[in-house]
Amino acid sequence: MDSSMIVIDGSQGEGGGQIFRSSLTLSMCLSKPVRIVKIRAGRSKPGLLRQHLTCLRAAREICRGGVVGDELGSREVEFYPGKVVAGNYRFAVGSAGSTSLVLQTVLLPLFHADAESRVELEGGTHNGMAPSFDYIQSCFFPTIATMGYHAAATLNRYGFYPAGGGNWEARIQPVGTPLPLTLSERGKIVQRLAIATSSKLPEHVTERELAYVQNKCRWPSSAHQQRLVKSVGPGNMLSLQIRSEHAREVAEVVGERHLRAERVADRAVKAIKVYLQAKVPVGEYLADQLLLPMVLGAGGEFRTVEPSQHLLTNIDVIRQFTGKEVRISKESPLVWHVAID
């Protein structure tokens, strides 16, 4: 094994696929080979699933890297990054696995390439346990744009679990000079949206979700959108979006078989109320996703809700690659401060 190779324990902390994806991103951006062991060791199906394998192959393709352990179920991978090359790429998960997580693996390396890139993705677009296309477009991209990272997303076809078959593309501009992130205050709320999306399901599903939101949140009727779409298979998602002067947040819940529409809506309402009550600019999931753009850019700070295990695990991986410290301090029972020099 190369003496300069970083070794990452994939079972540490949260112990999921995020450790694997963050390691690939950092490896490419810092030109440091990495060996990832015990991949997803704590999961019911440990090792690389199809979605993680797509992330690995996408990383290899954009930097012409070398890989050992490129197979389904692999619990140990060695990755040797080359130079990231801008271009037109297409990555298909081959299932309903999350396309947004594949994009996030290669996004920062392509931001640091020397020309515009176009990435087409096929698979799941609106998944549980992963940011949806809507989240990427409405929350993540606008937030990182304030740091100098500019990308645009276009949805061509919806893809719900388990059928998948969704398709979208992202256009990624070279970053130039990154800017520090400063998100200390949310500012005045300027827009609230409740978007209930479904395909091949009775219309009353989305109608009941929106009625529940209206009953619990009292948002104006103009804030409610019923979105009946076409996709390969049936699916449903409720997305509650808050746009403020300085920040954005999206709370989304995917409908499941045998889960009543009111239960879907209740989960989304509870999540958005946690964010609103804390009066912070950055929500739980966005906090985790901002760490890599900050550490690979110009640093910065933000205020958020109580850190998730995903965020804490990402901090550990960042420390092992860079030696940088991500400082977290508790300001009040509901508010936490995160900073990177």
* Binned strand content: 25-35%
Q: Characterize the overall form.
A: globular
**Count of spatially separate domains:** 2
Name the helix and strand elements from N-terminus to C-terminus, one letter apiece.
EHEHEEEHEHEEEEHEEEHHEHEE
Query: Helical region count?
Result: 8
Examine the secondary-structure arrangement and name the CATH architecture of the largest domain.
Alpha-beta prism
| Content-based structural category | alpha/beta
Question: Please, what is the average pLDDT?
Answer: 96
Account of the 3D structure:
The structure is a single chain. The chain has 341 residues and is an alpha/beta fold. It has two domains: 6-182 and 286-340, Alpha-beta prism (UDP-n-acetylglucosamine1-carboxyvinyl-transferase, Chain); 189-278, 2-Layer Sandwich (Dihydrodipicolinate Reductase, domain 2), CATH 3.30.360. 33% of the residues lie in helices and 27% in strands. The strands form four sheets. It has a four-stranded mixed sheet with strand order 1-2-4-3. Strands 5-6-8-7 form a four-stranded mixed sheet, with helices on one face. Strands 9-14-16-15 form a four-stranded mixed sheet, covered by helices on one side. Helix 2 (50-63) runs parallel beside helix 3 (99-111) and helix 7 (284-295) runs parallel beside helix 8. The radius of gyration is 19 Å and the shape is globular. The model has no long low-confidence stretch (mean pLDDT 96).
